[in-house]
Design brief:
By secondary structure, the protein is α+β, with helices and mostly antiparallel strands. The chain has a single domain (5-136), classed as Chemotaxis protein chec, CATH 3.40.1550. The protein contains five helices and eight strands. The strands form two sheets. A six-stranded antiparallel beta sheet has the order 1-7-8-4-3-5. The protein has a two-stranded antiparallel sheet with strand order 2-6. Strand 3 and strand 4 (45-50) form a beta hairpin.
């Protein structure tokens, strides 16, 4: 599972190092370092899945009834998807179109989200975290 937050920097070529904790999780839990990165329609960030989770995501989506919203979702996400393997230093080259969508320029934030993780512009992530805190306080936790 992916958890925690890690900050990194894009280099001049658009490469970023996937945090070691996430690379370790890829190999330990999913048996392979390959990832799929795509636009995420719910937030201005990139979604990242281990390849096997990406395949499971695709299968779950395929099982849902067809609708205009489903087709739009598929086009939006799948058209941007790229499969990448981190290099020996743990870096991946983020395509320009994905960097532009997520507003990634220099400082990026990796955010664990269970079976996937997200890549955010660090400043956008801070704003999102503030909004999430407001909403989280409305959630009634019955512990």
């Amino acid at each position: 599972m992916f958890q925690g937050e890690h900050q990194n920097q894009l280099d001049a070529k658009g490469r970023v190092s996937v945090p070691a904790a996430f690379r370790d999780a890829l190999v330990r839990h999913w048996g392979a370092p390959e990832i799929v990165i795509a636009r995420w329609p719910y937030d201005p960030c990139l979604a990242v899945w281990p390849v096997s989770e990406w395949q499971r995501f695709q299968a779950k989506l395929a099982a849902r009834p067809s609708s205009p919203a489903k087709r739009a979702f598929q086009r939006f996400v799948f058209s941007s998807a790229v499969e990448l393997v981190p290099d020996r230093q743990g870096r991946v080259l983020l395509p320009q179109a994905l960097r532009s969508y997520a507003g990634l320029v220099r400082e990026v934030q990796f955010v664990g989200a269970g079976e996937m993780f997200q890549i955010w512009d660090a400043a956008r992530w801070q704003k999102q975290l503030e909004e999430d805190l407001k909403l989280a306080r409305q959630f009634e936790w019955d512990a």
